[in-house]
């Protein structure tokens, strides 16, 4: 065994510098670290409001600049495979087939679960019925007539909400009759707020954190209570109902980091999953993966109190 303790200090220092330089060479962004530099993150547009909040605080805390690109779920996933982006935020995990593609490229995606979201059903305030059975929505999507549903409204055909509901209904494409799509969750909320009898399908975060211009439209819709396939009760998508697994349309959220080096993808994921990021999740109305600890200050009694 070699005795490195006998090497001159300047030689040991040179070795350390060399190792550090090699690590920096592996960093494809050059000056990007886990908390410094710039990067691009693609996000499923259904999740955009909560991620925008996370990015704003992250950039304020660190010397980092994150360009957020909100796209449909399919476009966000494709951005990883065509190498437009190395970081994506989705409402689903990568499939076995997708992971195989990365493995062939010698990339091991770092996957972080950071919150639980929910798909919400909304209707116009003029509608007296604020309850809906999930089995009726599924039947309507399968092309069967349902007296209580005039039509379903989605954000766009490539969105995570469409994929999610198609999966529940066991169909590959939405029916041509009675199901409509727009370009964004805001458009769905606006349309439903102005049209009676329609049920909108949106990410719950768009209701809990609307833009100022959208507040009047959010105020004119009801969030429907949903009865699950194996339940006799109706539940709204509240944090408590999601935490207790009572609301039937909850889904986990994932940060998919394919950078392959210690860059902002790792730093941002750690931030979102950490105490500050989880507090932002909690405040947004979604369910964090871990409830942030609450700090209490215990003040002892003074001498006058003891008398």
Automatic annotation (TrEMBL):
Q: Which residues form the signal peptide?
A: 1-21
Query: What organism is recorded for this protein?
Result: Flavobacterium rhamnosiphilum
What is this protein's name? Phosphate ABC transporter substrate-binding protein
> Any idea which UniProt keywords this protein has?
Signal
Is Cell membrane tagged as a keyword? no
Q: Does the keyword Signal apply?
A: yes
Q: Could you tell me which Gene3D superfamilies the record lists for this protein?
A: Periplasmic binding protein-like II
Looking up Pfam families in the UniProt record yields: PBP_like_2
PBP domain: which residues?
37-275
């Amino acid at each position: 065994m070699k005795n490195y303790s006998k090497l001159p200090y300047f030689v040991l220092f040179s070795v350390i510098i060399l190792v550090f330089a090699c690590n920096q060479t592996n960093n494809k962004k050059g000056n990007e670290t886990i908390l410094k530099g710039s990067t691009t993150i693609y996000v499923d547009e259904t999740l955009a409001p909560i991620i925008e909040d996370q990015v704003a605080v992250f950039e304020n805390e660190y010397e980092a600049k994150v360009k957020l690109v909100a796209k449909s779920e399919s476009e966000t996933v494709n951005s990883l495979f065509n190498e437009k982006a190395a970081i994506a935020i989705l409402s689903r995990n990568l499939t076995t087939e997708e992971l195989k593609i990365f493995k062939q490229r010698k990339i091991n995606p770092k996957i972080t679960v950071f919150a639980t979201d929910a798909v919400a059903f909304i209707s116009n305030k003029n509608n007296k019925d604020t309850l809906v059975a999930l089995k009726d929505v599924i039947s309507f999507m399968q092309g069967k007539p349902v007296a209580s549903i005039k039509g379903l409204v989605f954000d766009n055909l490539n969105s995570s909400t469409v994929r999610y509901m198609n999966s529940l209904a066991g169909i590959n494409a939405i029916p041509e009759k009675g199901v409509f799509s727009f370009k964004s969750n805001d458009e769905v909320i606006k349309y439903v707020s102005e049209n009676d009898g329609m049920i909108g399908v949106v990410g719950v975060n768009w209701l809990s954190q609307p833009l100022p211009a959208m507040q009047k439209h959010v105020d004119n819709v009801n969030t429907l209570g949903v009865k699950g396939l194996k339940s006799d009760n109706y539940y709204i998508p509240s944090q408590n109902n999601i935490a207790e697994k009572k609301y039937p349309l909850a889904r986990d959220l994932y940060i998919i980091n394919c950078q392959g080096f210690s860059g902002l993808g790792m730093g941002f994921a750690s931030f979102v999953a950490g105490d500050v990021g989880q507090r932002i999740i909690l405040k947004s109305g979604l369910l964090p993966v871990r409830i942030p600890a609450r700090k209490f200050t215990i003040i002892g009694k003074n001498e006058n109190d003891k008398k």
